[in-house]
UniProtKB/TrEMBL annotation:
Entries under PANTHER family matching the protein: FMN REDUCTASE (NADPH)
Leading EC class: oxidoreductase
Gene3D superfamilies for this protein: 3.40.50.360
Lineage: Bacteria, Bacillati, Actinomycetota, Actinomycetes, Streptosporangiales
Residue ranges crossing the lipid bilayer per the database entry: none
Pfam family, one: FMN_red
Keyword Oxidoreductase: yes
Entry protein name: NAD(P)H-dependent FAD/FMN reductase
Known EC number: 1.5.1.45
Alphabetized NCBIfam families for the sequence: LLM_duo_CE1759
Length: 204
């Protein structure tokens, strides 16, 4: 099982990366016994590659490897900082260069960080619609972490954030463990209209 974490934090250390790590750790705990292979993609390190892909129309080898990892993943954790009430430009650009069928049917946990809780609705107004457009299966619980949620500093967070992390990770794990191919439509016998009509007539 492959779990890919995409984080768009711009600083180092980054609260966005920290939240991404906590979500991945919680998901791995929920997937105990299945030993998921976790891969973290730091978009900060790919900024130039993403820009070049827009200009040339082709991703270079390093970016192609990360795009392939997302495409081949069984599940995705996507975390972005919130700027001006929406996801970062780098975050959006990465998913713009991804093939638009790569996330179809794939379970995705979305999360974001910001300086104030006032921007938490960006998860529902920006991130969820983006991944719905890409036909991903977004888990019900989205996780937002404001500055005040890191109650114990960069190494700990408040109980409220911890509960949201665990709930969202559990939902992602459930999708990964129970997802099954869509059942094929049953083949139905075509009954001529005359026979259908005759069946409705009262018998004498």
């Amino acid at each position: 099982m492959k779990l890919v974490v995409v984080t768009a934090g711009l600083t180092q250390p980054s609260s966005t990366r920290l939240l991404a790590d906590r979500l991945a750790e919680a998901a791995v705990r929920r997937l105990a016994g299945h030993e998921p292979d976790v891969r973290v993609i730091e978009l900060r390190e790919l900024a130039g590659d993403v820009a070049n892909a827009f200009v040339t129309g082709f991703p270079n080898a390093r970016l192609r490897a990360e795009l392939d990892a997302v495409t081949e993943a069984d599940g995705l954790v996507a975390v972005t900082p919130i700027f001006s009430g929406s996801y970062s430009g780098l975050f959006k650009s990465f998913f713009d260069v991804l093939d638009n069928t790569a996330l179809a049917g794939k379970p995705v946990l979305v999360a974001a960080t910001g300086g104030t809780a006032r921007h938490s609705l960006a998860l529902e107004h920006a991130l969820r619609p983006l991944f719905a457009y890409l036909r991903a299966v977004v888990v019900p619980t989205a996780v937002y972490a404001a500055a005040e949620d890191w109650g114990g500093g960069q190494d700990a967070f408040t109980d409220g954030l911890g509960e949201r992390v665990e709930r969202a990770a559990g939902e992602l794990a459930d999708l990964l463990l129970h997802r099954a191919p869509a059942a094929a439509e049953p083949v139905r016998e075509v009954v001529p209209f005359e026979e259908q009509l005759a069946a409705l007539r009262p018998k004498r």
